[in-house]
Each structure stands twice: as structure tokens, then as C-alpha cells.
């Protein structure tokens, strides 16, 4: 009997061993899989169990938290929601996160490993860290100037510091209040439905995520390509271009809005924005060289993160000469985000050295200790210093005596380029007004800011839409704010 | 303290007094209460940043219960195993902490105060059993009465309305009890008593069929009948966990009593047939099995997580060290989180480490029960100890395995841990019986003068001792005397004889 009792006790021991093995399977082996199951609400509960870290603009957080009273305890608030929505994005308990709220979610929600003072120990104890702050490069004065400049119009502004790549302003209008999407109640779902159904698409980040035909502003790139590849040696020499210019291999004749474009010099063509000259130059430079230069400015790059993803700007690499001619004046399939065009202006302003644009200056923990600091880095050398110098001259001329006089600022050197982009089938849509520019205070060592403005306003009289008329004054106010920094 | 036993009365040479370890027990009890109080404090600090108001009252309540239990053991079962009571108090205390912790999630439905009252009742019954039942062998006389009472207890709930699909409750005047819980002990008593009396008949008589020896229906009949009736009743009531438990204990005791491996084979065969029939005929069971096989199927179907999936999430969230008491989200499990699924809270907030510690506490309890059984010399006590211990072991396995996805889920209460009055009371009675048995097992046998070897000793405790082998076979003379004699000097001298005796008994009884 004793022997059999011992055997039954061994059976009980076997049951225990099975339980322990199964426990290890469930709690250690499969735990990660369980944690990531969408039906497991723990991640959400943990995430909203504490106030989210702040997104800091100009030394002050533009975000906050409020007690929601639900099981997801804290909801996000925004102090100036519509103004900073293109920077912050939203943090919603239902719809997740976007833009900076998304890209730096780990820091803001407190889950990032860098927040733990003793990472291994914290991983062991799973102590929750308070959310850290994301200090942006945005300058509130520029942001406000751009936002107010656009007013009620549809459009976007991107401003960068040429020497570093810091993004100083990122505005998209019409905007929305991301705070409306924070909670988890029916008000949130209603707001989501309304914002998504709105005809003017307030949740679209036009500065980062929308590409437009850049129109004449692309002539900066074409001019750079012509100078870099020796097609034009002297900006003051005649370019041997007929006006109108027959597109190669077609019967279409390209015309100009401006006068004096026949055989115009590069300088004059740039000043008054001759289509014919730049179309011709583009064909002369050739497809490969044009694409090469465009790519050095940042085109055809889908992978740019600031740290939010930036939509790729395009310059086709497979075209006939007629298409190349149109592409060289920013039409056909050429498309660029406002940030991309600000990068073009910044490269010119910064001696041809294109800095990688970035939106996050520092990441800090809840006590303000810096965890990470973004260091400026070169993205590409877009062109030689010589070419950049020549382009700065050309752009300055545009503002002093060309199409962009409305951007002029006393006491500063301002370079600019206007653009009016046709779009829609048979150019039926309202043209987009573009202006890209940079500004350097007299006596300053380097340009303070590079700005790109696009205005797409369907309500405006079509004749009124021009880069010089609509977009340049907005750029001027942004530049003025930058010069006052 | 008591001068009733011969060993202490005679005790000629100093220092041979057998250790009773009551001081150890008191120390362990203090530790068990302190650990529980620490748990309350931790819940309070984690949830509200303050020591909860309940910590003092729960701690004091638990301490009083522990002390009363200890006094009962000290005066009525002084030789009892010193681990049984502290482990029970610790498990009960941890259960109260877990329920108190889950009460924080359901402020309108507090279960911990009620559970404390039930625990007090359980300890009162523990004291009652330890104090009044002087000899566990008395129970042997009431074998059939136990069986009848168990059947009545199990049948009665059929007259009451079903609760959550199972007709296992009796409700009156705001109270609800689960009589099936009490039936567990009674059935164990019956099994142990019947098998102790009839094990030779079961092992050696009857017809041989192929390689299996089948006993006569006269011997096998009553026990199989009672087992079948109880299982049938439980299936009717949809209390499948308990029917599995009865089955397991039945097979374990049958094997322990007769040593016939064939019984295990027959048992497993019956279990397989039963499971297949019930599994296919009962939609309730069928869905449980489906859940077990594919715990996340309902999520993929878009119907949300099943309770088992939520339980697995909780265990997974615990990881190695757990989230800490009060800091998990096992409340997401919702229904039955304080009863059937209480282990998920332990798994999430105490982690794999804490869960392993819990399992080891149960294991220690079971092992101590087995040990008491093995130290006894009469079959009824042995089988009762083995029955109660394996009842505990199988119950822990079935519940823990169920909520952790090892086996299909069956609704049952984790002993001492889960919310449930009947359960906690029953478990305290079980502990009382084990304390009683271990006291008997560890009590020094009255020494016979100063001779080391006595041919045949007749002492009251050894009344049923003679049938450790088939009747009529001789026993080694040294065995009884050697083990019975408390004097250390005798042990080594008798060891060879004892071993010889056991070998012979094995040859006689075990392997024909």
C-alpha cells in the first residue's frame, strides 16, 4: 500500500510540474503575444493611466491632459489646437495618434526605454515612467505669422533654418482642433466623422503630406542644374531660346506670361519667370542631369522623416523631351510638398549645403533632463557654393526688381521665387500660388530662414492668384518674424 | 503539556521528548498573518497611496482566527504537523487580500467582508472538528451514512433554481451555499472507509478477464454505484469540475488501496468514454472544449475576447515578477473574477514567481497530507489522508489548468483563495481532518517498558493495523515495535527488521 501511495503522490507531483511548465509558457513564453493581441486592453489602459508628456513650442507646452473620468484616465488637451495641429497631430483614445504624437509616442506615453533611469531594473519591475517632453524646433512667432498670414485661405507654410535644418514653422490651413479627438465618447466619434467628411479636409497636413505642382518655383532647381552642368556659364549671356518655344517632338508651343523672354539671359528669365527659357534649359541639361539635381535637393525620396514621415516629392526619371521641358518649369508630373520647396530655398541660402530638416530639438524626461538631442546633419550637397551664390543673386533680383517685390523687407537681404502652378485636367483647376524665399538680416553671417508658401484658394479671382501677389506677403511676415528672433 | 501519553509520562532519560513544533507553528502563523497584512498595505498604497482602513481589521481578524486555530491544535492535537495550519492561514489570508484587491474595482459589490465571516466560520468548524473528533477512525463507522448524506446534499440543489447555468446552489434568506462542496469530504470518507474494508476483496477475488482481474459485483457494486450516482447527479447539475474531481479521487484511492494498475486503465477508459459522450451531447461542455482549443477564436470572429482569453491576457501581463498587488488589470475578466478566476489576479499581480510560490504552498499542503497518511499504520486513515490530499491536488490542477489554458475550463473554486463560503468552510474542515490524522501519525506510540523488541503489541491505535497484508499472512515482528516506540535508541536497531518486514509485506500484498 505504501508503494502505491508513493506512486499516487508522484502523480500529484506530476500535476504540479505540468502546472509550473504551463505557467512558464503562459507567463513568459507567450506573454508577448498576448500583450500584442488587439483584444487585450492593457496597453491602452496603461498608456492613458498617466498624463501624457508635453509637446513644447518656444519653451512652453502646447499640450496638456485632463481627467476623463473613464477607465482610460487621462485625455489629451491642446492649448492652441488648430495652430499647432500640423506639428502635434492628435492623440486619441479611439483613433490612435498622428504626427509628433505618433512619432514620439514612446517618450510622451512614458514607455520609451530611455526614460528609465535604470533600464534593466525598470524592465524587471515594470515601473511606469512619467511621460517625457518633446521640445520642438518650432518658433511660435513664425508659426503664428504663417497661420495668420494664410488666414481663412487654404494653403500651407513651411519654414526652415537654412544652416541647421530646424523647422521653424509648419502650418496647414484650414486646420482643426486635435483636442476634439482626444476622448473616447460619442463627441469624439462625431468629431472624427465630421472632420473626415469635411470638404476642405482640415486634417490633411498640407505642409508635409500634400504635394503640389511647384510651378515656376521649380525654376530654382532648373537654374541650379543648368549652372552645375555647364549649360549656362554666364547668367548674363543670352540663352538662344525662341518665344514661344515649341515643345520638342510636338506641335505645342509654350508661351510666357512675361515680356522679353526671347533669347533672354538666365538672370532676366529668372526675374520675370520665363517659361520658355527654363523649359529649353531643362531639355538642354537632359533628363539624367535634371533628375540628378532634383534628387540632390531632396526629390524622389520617400523616406524623409522629421520624425513624422514626409510625403515624397517627385521628379520623373522616365520622360520624353516635351515632358522634360514641362517638368523643368514645375508642371507635368513634377510635384513637391511645401517643406520640399522650403528645403530648395534653404539649400540655396546655405551655400548649396542642404541640411536634413528636423522638427524635434530635444527629448527630455519628466524632470527636464535631456535624453536625446538632434544634431544638424547634411542631407545632400545640392550644388556647388558657386552655383548657390549665383542663385542667391538671381533670387535677390526677383525680390528687388522682379515678380516678388512684395516680399521685400527693409534692412534685410531677401531672395525669392514666385510660382503659379496650373493644375487639373486641361488646367481647369484653380492655380496654386507659390512663393519660396530666404532672408538674411543686413550684417548677419548667414540667412535666418527659408520659407515656402503655397496658397490654394478656390474663392479667389483666378487672375489674382499669383505667387507674387498672394503668397509673397505671407512669406514676408514669416521672414520678418524670423529676422526679429 | 499533557501527561496523557505514555512517552511523556515515563520519559526516564531526559531529552527524548519528541518535538511537537507548536512554537514553530506559532511563528509560521505570525509570518502568514504578517504577509497577508503586508498584502493589504500594498494594495492600499498602490491604489490610493495610503494604508487602507481595512488593513488593521482584516489583519486583526486573521490573527485572531490563526491564534484560535493554533490554540485548538496546541491543546487538542499537540503532535499535529506544524505546517498544515500556517499554510491554510496564509492561503486564506492571501485569498482575502486578492478579494479585497478586486473589491477596489467593484466598490458597490464588496466580497471580502463576507469572505472573512465565512473564513471565521471555517476556522470555527476547524476548531470544532479538532476538538471534538478525538480519533479520525470514528468516521469509518459512518461510511454509508456519509455516502447517503453526500448524495442528499448533492441532490437538494436540483430543487432550487439554477445560478449561472449550474444547479449547485441552495439559496435562502440571502445566503447561498454550495452543498456539493461538503459532499466532497463525505464522499472521500466513504471511499476511504469502503476501500479500507474491501481492498483485498477488490484485489484478489473475482474473475480474471484477459489480463485484468475483475472483482465480484458484490464487492465492487456499492462503491461503483455510489460513484456513478454522484457523477450522474453532478452531470445533471452541470457541475463538471466536481464530477471530474470525484472521478480522480476515486481512481487514485482505488489504485492506492488495491495496487491494481488495471484500475487506472479502466478508469482512464471510462473517463475517455465519459468525456467523449458528455463533450458531444452537452453544448455547454462542447463550447468549453472549443474555447480551450482555440482561446482566441472569438476575437478573430470579432466577438471580443472570451473569458479564457482575458484570463490568459492577465497571466501574460504578469510575466516573471508581476505588476504588483493593485496594479494589474485582471478586473477586465469581469464575471467570476473573484471566484473561478481569482488565480488570474494572482498571476498578473504576483507574476510567475508568486504563482509558483502559491503552487508550492498547495504542494506542501498535499505533501504533508500524504506524509501523515504514510506515517499511519491503518488503512482507513491512510486512504482518508491520501483521499483528502489528492482531492486538494486534483482540484488545484483542474482549476489552475483550466484558467491557464492547460485543460478545458471547469468552474470550481481555488481552495482557500477563491471567493465562496462553502468552499472555504469545506477546506477548513479538510485541514482539520488532516491535522487530526497527522496528530495521530506523529504521536509517539506508548513505549512498552524498555524492551526494544516485542513480538506482538496490541495498542488501541493499532486496532486496524493488522491488515496491511492479506489476512492470514504473518508480519515481521520488528515492524510494529520499531515504529511505535518513540525512543530514539530503538530506531536504528530495528531498522533492518522493519525493512525486512516491509519487503515481505510488499511480496505478500502488492505483487501477486
Question: How do the helices and strands line up, and which of them pair or pack?
Answer:
The complex is a heterodimer of chains A (485) and B (512).
Chain A: H1 2-29, H2 31-35, H3 42-47, E1 55-57, E2 60-61, E3 63-67, E4 74-78, H4 81-88, E5 91-92, E6 96-97, H5 99-103, H6 105-109, H7 119-125, E7 133-136, H8 140-150, E8 155-160, E9 167-173, H9 186-197, H10 219-228, E10 245-246, E11 253-254, H11 266-272, H12 275-285, H13 287-296, H14 321-327, H15 338-349, E12 353-355, E13 360-364, E14 370-373, E15 378-381, H16 385-401, E16 412-421, E17 432-441, E18 449-455, H17 467-483
Parallel strand pairs in A: 1-7
Antiparallel strand pairs in A: 1-2, 3-4, 5-6, 7-13, 8-9, 8-18, 10-11, 12-15, 13-14, 16-17, 17-18
Chain B: H1 6-10, H2 22-48, H3 54-76, H4 84-103, H5 112-132, H6 143-155, E1 170-172, E2 175-177, H7 179-204, E3 207-209, E4 212-214, H8 217-236, H9 240-258, H10 261-281, H11 283-293, H12 297-300, H13 307-318, H14 342-375, H15 379-403, H16 421-442, H17 477-484, H18 490-510
Antiparallel strand pairs in B: 1-2, 3-4
Give a short summary of the structure.
Chain A is an alpha+beta fold.
What structural class results from the helix and strand content of chain A?
Answer: alpha+beta
User: What is the count of helical runs of chain B?
Assistant: 18
Structural shape of chain B: globular
**Sequence of strands across the biggest β-sheet of chain B:** 1-2
Alpha-carbon distance between the two ends of chain B: 47 Å
Could you give the order of the helices and strands of chain B? Answer: HHHHHHEEHEEHHHHHHHHHHH
Range of strand content of chain B: under 5%
Low-confidence segments of chain B, ≥5 residues, pLDDT <50?
Answer: 1-9, 451-455, 457-512
**Number of contiguous helices of chain A:** 17
Mean pLDDT of chain B: 80
Contiguous runs where pLDDT drops below 50 for at least 5 residues of chain A = none
Oligomer state equals heterodimer
Largest sheet of chain A: 5 strands, mixed
Rg of chain B, rounded, reads 24 Å
CA-based gyration radius of chain A: 28 Å
Major pleated sheet of chain B: 2 strands, antiparallel
Broad structural category of chain B: mainly alpha
> Most extensive interface, residues per chain?
A-B, 39 and 55 residues
